[in-house]
Amino acid sequence: MTMNIALARVDSRLLHGQVATFWTKYVKPNRILVVSDSVVKDQLRKTLISQVAPADVKANVISVDKMISIYGDPKFDSFKALLLTETVADMVRLAQGGVDFSDSGINLGNLAYTPGKKMITDTIAVDDEAVSEIKTLIDQFHLNVYAQQVPGEKPQNVLELINE
């Protein structure tokens, strides 16, 4: 048995009000795992993330390598995790490291716009690199990668959005 990943979400804002309020109530995790090599080194951001987490759900900030190492550890089998990364690249690294997202798929919530990126929804901007990473998750790991900002919204196929 391994850790149950109830929701795997890419959101460049990581844990914020929308995730803490809507997704946590919908998924009912017992742990929020923010997986980011940059945030793990930033005490201020780590503190802010722990303050945003709902009172009844513990949040941890861990590196990508740490997530890979604890995923198969039986000590964490009781986790029902809401897992957040800042980038699609981090999700690819997790999948390559053996984290299985076949039950949860990959939810794209927010990828911030920067010059040179194409908006595919109101909140998701992609460049060629992100498109390549999304295709890796779909083609190599056979994952459902979908855009859905909040639980009440209909999930959208990301490849169809990219190709529009």
Provide an overview of this structure.
This is PTS system mannose/fructose/N-acetylgalactosamine-transporter subunit IIB. It is a single chain. With 164 residues, the chain is an alpha/beta fold. The chain is 34% helix and 23% strand. The protein is built from six helices and nine strands. The protein has helices at residues 17-27, 43-52, 64-71, 88-96, 128-139, 158-163, and strands at residues 4-11, 31-35, 58-62, 80-85, 106-110, 118-119, 125-126, 145-147, 156-157. Strands 3-2-4-1-5-8-9 form a seven-stranded mixed sheet. Strands 6-7 form a two-stranded antiparallel sheet. The longest helix is centred in the last third of the chain and has 12 residues, at 128-139. It is globular and about 45 Å long. The model has no long low-confidence stretch (mean pLDDT 94).
Q: In percent terms, what proportion of residues is strand?
A: 15-25%
- What is the tally of beta strands? 9
What class do helices, strands and sheet pairing give? alpha/beta
How far from one another are the termini? 40 Å
Low-confidence segments, given as residue ranges, are none
Question: Could you report the average pLDDT, rounded to the nearest whole number?
Answer: 94
List the secondary-structure elements in sequence, H or E.
Answer: EHEHEHEHEEEHEEH
Largest sheet: 7 strands, mixed
Q: What's the helix count?
A: 6
> Which term fits the overall shape?
globular
Compute the gyration radius: what is it? 15 Å
Lateral strand order in the biggest sheet: 3-2-4-1-5-8-9
Helical amount: 25-40%
